[in-house]
């Protein structure tokens, strides 16, 4: 995604997960789980017509680390954002204009990454409930939220864990970065598929 955050967000994972999943837990009657979804977890607001959207209004990727356990420096954070920005822009291309203003045909896109690959979280993670299976030591977990930019209404949420063996103690730094690029491209491809299947490209 385009843009960059002015600072990193270092929060306890328990706080992050509660914030991300609270809507689907408290408004379960208005959200439905798609019959077929490539994401590990996904919920769409019932009755939403994504076909009315043709443009995207993204915000910068938010990155969360395990607080107080080997937090990466600003160079690492900037590199992660660059990898994801380039992967998503390459997939979107010129088919879905990226805009800064809200509008009736503009879909808001907010992406978050829980990063336990570039940090040193040890022991049990402070994550409970349904989200616990999506967050693990040595792995990345990607969350995406789609909104109506005019009303701020949440239209969909999805979460997906990286599909690679976790090797937090022996993996070389080069290998960690290679896998980060692989996962960013995979998630970007999943997002592009969603856009092609649901949005108005005319």
Key words describing this protein structure:
202 residues; alpha/beta; Rossmann fold; 3 helices; 8 strands; disordered N terminus
Structure report:
With 202 residues, the protein is an alpha/beta fold. The protein has a single domain (9-197), classed as Rossmann fold. The chain has helices at 13-26, 74-92, 173-198; strands at 9-10, 31-32, 41-45, 55-58, 62-65, 106-115, 140-148, 154-161. Strand 2 and strand 3 (41-45) form a beta hairpin. Helix 2 (74-92) runs parallel beside helix 3 (173-198).
Q: Taking Cα atoms only, what radius of gyration do you get, to the nearest Å?
A: 17 Å
N-to-C span: 22 Å
Parts with pLDDT < 50 across at least 5 consecutive residues: 1-29
**Count of alpha and pi helical runs:** 3
What is the CATH C level class, in words? Alpha Beta
Strand content: 15-25%
- Average predicted local confidence, pLDDT: 79
Biggest sheet features:
8 strands, mixed
Q: How many beta-strand segments? A: 8
> How many structural units, i.e. domains?
1
N to C succession of SSEs: EHEEEEHEEEH
């Amino acid at each position: 995604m385009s843009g960059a955050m002015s600072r990193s967000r270092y929060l306890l994972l328990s706080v992050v997960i509660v914030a991300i999943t609270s809507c689907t837990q408290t408004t379960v009657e208005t959200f439905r789980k798609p019959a077929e979804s490539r994401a590990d977890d996904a919920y769409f607001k019932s009755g939403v017509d994504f076909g009315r959207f043709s443009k995207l209004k993204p915000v910068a990727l938010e990155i969360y680390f395990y607080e107080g356990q080997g937090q990466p420096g600003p160079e690492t954070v900037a590199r992660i954002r660059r990898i994801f920005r380039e992967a998503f822009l390459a997939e979107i291309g010129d088919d879905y204009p990226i805009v800064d203003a809200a509008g009736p045909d503009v879909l808001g896109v907010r992406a978050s990454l829980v990063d336990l690959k570039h940090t040193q979280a040890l022991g049990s993670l402070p994550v409970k409930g349904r989200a616990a299976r999506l967050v693990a030591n040595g792995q990345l977990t990607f969350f995406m939220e789609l909104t109506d930019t005019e009303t701020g209404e949440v239209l969909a949420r999805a979460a997906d864990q990286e599909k690679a063996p976790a090797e937090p103690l022996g993996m070389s730094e080069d290998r960690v970065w290679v896998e980060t690029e692989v996962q960013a491209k995979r998630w970007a491809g999943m997002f592009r598929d969603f856009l092609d299947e649901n949005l108005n490209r005319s």
